[in-house]
Design brief:
Elements lengths: L11 H14 L8 E2 L2 H8 L3 H13 L3 E4 L3 E4 L9 H21 L4 H21 L1
Antiparallel strand pairs: 1-3, 2-3
Length: about 130
Amino acid sequence: MFPIDDTDPTPLYAQLERAIRVAIATGRLRPGDKLPTVRQLAVDLRINANTVAKVYGELERAGVLETQRGVGTFVQEVGSQAASLSDRERQLMALADRFLTGAATLGFSAREAIALLKTRWMDMKREKSDA
């Protein structure tokens, strides 16, 4: 469900958080969808349950997920997310900075990185419509 690469130097919790956010952003996970339990996702991904719990907790504090005790963890409705528009824009700007910096580190110009991002976005839209 969520790609985790143990050869990637990015910490597992960061990879998982990013994967969940991408799944929501691309529509693979929609508001109200139930996520696997902490234990089940840890088993599926072969990672420590504490790592999954940490990610779920962080995303809950960010207003992305909602946990209902005894029921499960769900993608929260967009309108009920705690973060204000200006806060989300600030976070998006920081994400863009990290993306462009990472691309430059790999030897890509900003123009090349943005072109790749556009191509990837179109691929994801196509994948979503094929599903």
